[in-house]
Amino acid sequence: MGRKWNNIKEKKASKDAKTSQIYAKFGREIYVVAKQGEPDPESNQALKFVLERAKTYNVPKAIIDRAIEKAKGGSDENYDKLRYEGFGPNGSMVIVDALTNNVNRTAPEVRSAFNKNGGNMGVSGSVAYMFDETAVIGVEGKTEDEVLELLMESDLDVRDILTEDSAIIVYAEPDQLHAVQEAFRSAGISEFTVAEITMIAQNDITLPEEAQDQFEKMIDALEDLEDVQQVYHNVDLGE
User: Fold this and answer.
1) For 22-69, what is each residue's pLDDT tens digit?
2) Looking at residue 14, what is its pLDDT?
3) Where in the chain is the domain with CATH 1.10.10.200?
């Protein structure tokens, strides 16, 4: 399971060329959740969650404020949440989550990214059953035993606690995300290396070098699409 945190780390450490892309995707997501509820994180838990996740990606305050102000301004721009599933080289599995204001544009673009890189789109449900929705929370400055004790004191029984690089990573049920964060905050920890809900494959696979190069090109092509917010997969990309 721990290797999936490495995939999140790689996304956080994306090359500079992708930084503005990541910020734009957060701006869109913040706008959507702010418009769907109150544009105030104290009364809109979904917005609070997105803002906390944006903080771990160092999204500038100006981008956050602009998205919230756009929602406050009553913009009539609407987005649909879509999920696509598909296969990459050597039977690798991929889930693509999108936010789009043009459904007729998004599906062909996602299909093309698959097809041009040795993959193909599947039907709904063809891949997702091999993934588990999981809350991932990371902190530094604690040991596994200290984190376990802290969570036990808060009566939280999580899926797993692992040491990965300099961080302690907690894997929990999706509905435990905020409870785990609050347990850390009660212990004086308010900074998180990661705090998000992701899709983790039940089994990772390793691809031969040539197939992995093609797979990474496919993932890059999918992530480069304007409408794509998240891409999940079951390939161990290594360190």
Assistant:
1) 899 999 999 999 998 888 888 888 899 899 889 888 899 999 999 999
2) 54
3) 3-72
80-129+202-233: CATH topology:
Alpha-Beta Plaits (3.30.70)
Tell me the pTM. Answer: 0.89
CA-based R_g, the chain, Å: 18
Residue with tokens 């193909």: 120
- How confident is residue 17, by pLDDT bands cut at 50, 70 and 90? low
- C-alpha pair distances (Å), 117 with each of 7, 128, 210, 218: 20, 21, 12, 5
HEC assignment per residue over the chain: CCHHHHHHHHHHCCCHHHHHHHHHHHHHHHHHHHHHCCCCCCCCHHHHHHHHHHHHCCCCHHHHHHHHHHHHCCCCCCCEEEEEEEECHHHCEEEEEEEECCHHHHHHHHHHHHHCCCCEECCCCCCHHHEEEEEEEEEECCCHHHHHHHHHHCCCCCCEEEEECCEEEEEECHHHHHHHHHHHHHCCCCCCCEEEEEEEECCCECCCHHHHHHHHHHHHHHHCCCCEEEEEECECCCC
Question: How many residues belong to the chain?
Answer: 239
Domain 131-201 belongs to what architecture? 2-Layer Sandwich (3.30)
Q: Residues 6 or more apart from 151 whose CB is under 8 A from it?
A: 157, 158, 161, 170, 180, 183
d(CA 226, CA 28) in angstroms, rounded, equals: 10
Task: Please state the separation of Cα 222 from the chain's center in Å.
Answer: 14
